[in-house]
Amino acid sequence: MTTIKTVGVCGAGTMGAGIAIVAARAGHRVVLYDTKAETLERASKQTAGFFGKSVERGKLTQKQVDGFLGAYTRTTDINDLAACDLVIEAVFENLAVKRELFGKLNAICPKHTIFASNTSTLSITEIAGGCGREDRVVGMHFCLPAQLMKLVEMSPGLNTSDEIFQTAWAFCEALGQRPVKTKDSPGFVLNYFLVPFNNDVIRMVEAGVAEPADIDRAIKAGLGYKMGPCELLDLIGLDTQVLLCEAFYDVTHDARCAAPPLLKRMVAAGHLGRKSGRGFFQYDKDAMFGG
Amino acid sequence: MTTYQIIDAGESRSFPAGDAFRAAASGSGDIVVYLGEGATAAYRSDASKTAVLVELGTECLGVATDEGRGEEGSNALGFARFRVGDGEPSNLIELVRQPASDPVALEAAKTLFEEAGFEVSVCADFSGRILDRLIRPYYNEALAKLDEGLASASDMDLTVKLGLGYPEGPIELLERTGLHHHHDVTQALFEVYGTKHYAPARRAKVAKQRLEQGS
């Protein structure tokens, strides 16, 4: 039984909008905050579209959706988060940006409010540092797309109290998600394994060991993965992989985490993956070539 | 249908006794397939054949054919049906080419395996080919992070299944297929590549040591 009633979500990008849907769908009052009105507008359309499809597919009734959306507000004013019991940040993956946000929220929110970070690479302890309520900060890393993926990696910082972590854990379960506990360690479990693995794949292509289509076929046929790594990298975005590498290498100094030269060249050439129509594969109206 | 002849050179991990691929072989054919742990030693070149296929373990095809100036290649190709430890052989054939491999031989080999119902990935002649090169560092990291308490074994497995859609987590997969087998493969790759990520994780070493002492 969760004591969390009103949930704030900071950052209305793909991840933030998805988390807000998850919270709304679980019956919480939701306040989605972003500094940009157009980002909120886009999130609003995406949310309406998602719930609309849920009704079409018979997963939700229109009455339920009307209830969710009636308790869902969007704002560009951070002060509107003052009534939240828990605030999840899903803003730009930058330590200074997240620390500044939590510092501001500490001055706005009541003492009981829990702060959660959706960071995928940064330290929860570092994000919490200096915010004024380090004992009430937890890591809650949702997977993309949050509104469909059940997994949440939950991590306590060094100063997080056990009681607060348990409260956040119960909240996560009440959302209908499946939390797993990880240490406050770079990349937690998922990205710790995935980022260097994907870099190894890129280096393998660069070294001429095998073509992307052969690597993807091997992974799927040999290991039963649903998606090949090159296909996945194209979906993630090669520019995003560079950012992940930079964040990881900065913390780990592990050579496997450093961005491979081929990755940097592809980004420089505008081969960003699906979003640019070309990455390891070429895309035309979502049709895949080279597979 | 492509006809092929099998020459046995020890126990085959790709096509164990009773495998349908063996049953479909003939006494002669356009393609010769050397099977077993001794395949590279048993290999004899035969230019009269469309292709000569050599089953590989962690070694390179060059061990069978010799290499020279980065220009090696003939109708001889390497292959292995991917398999983790004691797990069942998968449906994947990793087909190994050299820089100057005969394209006709390569195409014939692909056709042979595809006709037999396998998926085929072509790769260059490097130890560990595609999959072992990619997954062994991942398994070593998973074992090391288990030691460091990053997450419980169950949570680690569940995380990759739910988060990445993998059919099995690394710890349960290694338990199922034999941790000591992982030790042997990653140790062989470590000796070739020398990078720390191939060095067997502590738990893999323990499993190997227990096997060696008869536990």
Explain this structure:
The complex is a heterodimer of chains A (291) and B (215). Helices cover 46% and strands 14% of the residues of chain A. With 291 residues, chain A is an alpha/beta fold. Chain A has two domains: 6-181, Rossmann fold, CATH 3.40.50; 191-285, N-(1-d-carboxylethyl)-l-norvaline Dehydrogenase, domain 2, CATH 1.10.1040.10. In chain A, strand 4 (86-89), helix 4 (95-108) and strand 5 form a beta-alpha-beta unit. In chain A, helix 7 (190-206) packs across helix 10 (238-252), helix 9 crosses helix 10 (238-252) and helix 10 (238-252) packs antiparallel against helix 11. Chain A is globular. Chain B starts with a strand and ends with a helix. Chain B folds into two domains: 4-124, NAD(P)-binding Rossmann-like Domain (Rossmann fold, 3-Layer(aba) Sandwich); 133-210, N-(1-d-carboxylethyl)-l-norvaline Dehydrogenase, domain 2 (Orthogonal Bundle), CATH 1.10.1040. With 215 residues, chain B is of the alpha/beta class. The relative contact order of chain B is 0.11. Chain B has helices spanning 20-23, 39-42, 62-65, 103-115, 131-147, 153-164, 170-177, 179-193, 202-212, and strands spanning 4-8, 31-35, 51-55, 76-81, 92-97, 119-124. Chain B has nine helices and six strands. Chains A and B meet through strand 8, helix 7 and helix 8 of A and strand 6, helix 5 and helix 6 of B.
Strands of chain A, count = 10
- CA(first)-CA(last) distance of chain B: 48 Å
Number of domains of chain A: 2
Q: What's the number of domains of chain B?
A: 2
Number of helices of chain A: 11
Question: Gap between N and C termini of chain A, in Å?
Answer: 48 Å
User: Could you tell me the radius of gyration of chain A in angstroms?
Assistant: 20 Å
CATH second-level architecture of the largest domain in chain B: 3-Layer(aba) Sandwich
User: What number is the mean pLDDT of chain A?
Assistant: 94
Number of helices of chain B: 9
Biggest sheet statistics of chain B: 6 strands, mixed
Largest interface: A-B, 42 and 44 residues
Which class do the helix and strand fractions of chain A yield? alpha/beta
The share of residues in helices of chain B is: 40-55%
For the CA atoms, what is the radius of gyration of chain B?
19 Å
Beta percentage of chain B is 15-25%
CATH topology of the largest domain in chain A, by name, is Rossmann fold
- Indicate the mean pLDDT of chain B: 97
CATH class of the largest domain in chain A: Alpha Beta
How many beta-strand elements of chain B?
6
- State the oligomer: heterodimer
